[in-house]
Design brief:
Helix content is 70%, strand content 0%. It has helices at residues 16-35, 40-69, 76-85, 93-134, 138-176, 190-193. Helix 4 (93-134) packs antiparallel against helix 5.
């Protein structure tokens, strides 16, 4: 059920180096905006370390998702995009079943982790500006508060929309596939859903 079997090549945005490059650019850009160009060597080194860690984390998460739902790691981002956009259904019944299992996996993780994920993010995004205010850096504190409020607001909106679209996609597949969610194919999904989370994913994938 790989990308070649379905006639689709993996998008360059989904490759490991593209993930790392995006994280590096965002990290360096934000740090330079707050700290200025004077400390760019340390910012670049820190960005490389952080980008390396996040790339490893994302790739590890994809591999675990792929094993849990019965597809290849290269297919996971495309399935997630289709779910998030409420897009075209896979034609392959086996891939429809994999999408159902991926939806169940995401729904379970959202239910399990939502009680702590958003509070921790709020503490980070609003706690750091408080430290900046305490250090006398009012400008950075104001920018941090504005960014934190906007980012958390966007995350809440995106998370709710993603949950609705997961439910809608699952209903569409069950209708098209003649009850895939309750048939023999969906049986193995119960195991991975309650198994190891594979990371602290308390929110939807587009926010990362």
């Amino acid at each position: 059920m790989g990308s070649q079997e379905h006639g689709q090549a993996q998008r360059w945005q989904d490759r490991w180096w593209a993930v790392g490059l995006l994280v590096l650019v965002v990290w360096v850009g934000i740090r330079l905006a707050f700290d200025g160009w004077s400390g760019w060597p340390g910012i670049l080194v820190g960005g490389l370390v952080y980008a390396g860690f996040m790339t490893w984390f994302v790739m590890r998460r994809r591999r675990r998702d792929a094993r849990a739902v019965g597809t290849e790691a290269a297919r996971v981002p495309e399935l997630e995009r289709r779910i998030a956009r409420n897009g075209e259904l896979p034609e392959d019944p086996a891939e429809q079943a994999a999408m159902i299992r991926l939806i169940r996996r995401r729904e379970e993780k959202l239910r399990r982790n939502r009680w702590w994920a958003f509070p921790v993010l709020a503490l980070i995004f609003f706690g750091i500006p408080v430290l900046w205010f305490a250090a006398g850096n009012v400008g950075a504190g104001l920018w941090g508060l504005a960014f934190g409020a906007a980012f958390l607001g966007w995350m809440v909106w995106f998370n709710r929309r993603f949950v609705r679209r997961m439910a809608g996609m699952r209903q569409r597949i069950e209708g098209v596939g003649g009850g895939l969610a309750t048939g023999p194919v969906a049986g193995p999904a119960a195991g991975p859903v309650t198994g190891p989370a594979g990371g602290a994913e308390g929110f939807a994938p587009g926010a990362r």
